[in-house]
Amino acid sequence: MSDLGVAARLSGTVRIVGAGLLGSSIGHALRAKGVDVVLTDTSPAQLRLAVDYGAGRAARDDDAPALIVVAVPPDITADVVQAELERHPDAVVTDVASVKLEPLRVLRERGVDLARYIGSHPLAGRERGGAISARADLFVGRPWVVCRDEETRPADLALVEALALDVGAMPVEMGPEEHDRSVALTSHVPQVVASLLAARLADADDGALRLAGQGVRDTTRIAASAPELWVQILGANAHPVVSILDALAADLARVSDALREPERDGARRTLAEAIRQGNEGVERLPGKHGQNRRFESFVVMIDDTAGQLGRLFGELGELGVNVEDLRLEHSPGAQFGLAEISVAPAAVRGAIEGLEARGWRIAGATNG
């Protein structure tokens, strides 16, 4: 459950450097809890927009922040962290860059005193950036990695963890090396794969695109991300990303070889093993509330008119069915959509029978 409704753990002023998506979203979440948030950005227009939307107030020279959050692109994170440490000698400084080792390496090479610096990274975001896309609930239920070291003072660590908790996130302690290896696998490589797959669609025939279903939409959703930002992220975390991409390339080569001669001895086993190993990987992904639970799904046909999805959820509630996940897909050329509802296995039969009794059309049931 969200922690946004309880009193703020942070007190005093929080200074946010960078009024883009992450910085403004942090500002909105903290302001909702009554925290004094001051914003600064190298772009006056971006800063004014973030202030107008209520993410905080413009910073003043006499502000005395207890905590500073650096929310700038990875290629200038080290520069800004250093400047903030020097400008505010009594404040704890954290950053929310998606790579942790490279900024730390640069700061250490410069001989910067890092006693008051704690790198962190919220695992949250959107395909669209900027203050206009910011949301107070962006971090709710999401992991927020905090990279402490032997120099970290307990009180400073508590301040950064309080930040994560106040915006609704779940603090996770992790070293910078482990963090960068982890996000290479779970975030950075998926971005590359999604972008390369989506690029195949650019020159596809219109007829083929009309057949696009939820599978291709799911696997290419993040391909809408900003190229400028991802060039920085991938460049800063190149080594672990390359290691995974090389292994993935070898897997793809094996599958391609098998498909070139599908009747060859062992070819079908190679294909089956590739799919099976994918099953095993998916089963390890944490589900709702971090549980490795498997759900079952059924598909409901919904007329493309206002209020139908709300009615479906209302009637599922009347049936006592807890919806674990939902995916929506519009049927090309038809005036209805398909809602894939995931529920606990024990609830499938009652949900289907109850909905059918209320006049809903069930298109099918699958393992979730």
TrEMBL record:
Record-given protein name: Prephenate dehydrogenase
Keywords (A to Z) from UniProt: Oxidoreductase
Keyword Chloroplast: no
Transmembrane portions of the chain: none
Family in the record: Belongs to the prephenate/arogenate dehydrogenase family.
InterPro entries (alphabetical): 6-PGluconate_DH-like_C_sf, NAD(P)-bd_dom_sf, PDH_C, PDH_N, Preph/Arog_dehydrog, Prephen_DH
NCBIfam families attached to this UniProt entry: PRK06545.2-3, PRK06545.2-4
One GO process term, biological-process aspect: tyrosine biosynthetic process
Organism, scientific name: Microbacterium pseudoresistens
Enzyme Commission number(s) from the entry: 1.3.1.12
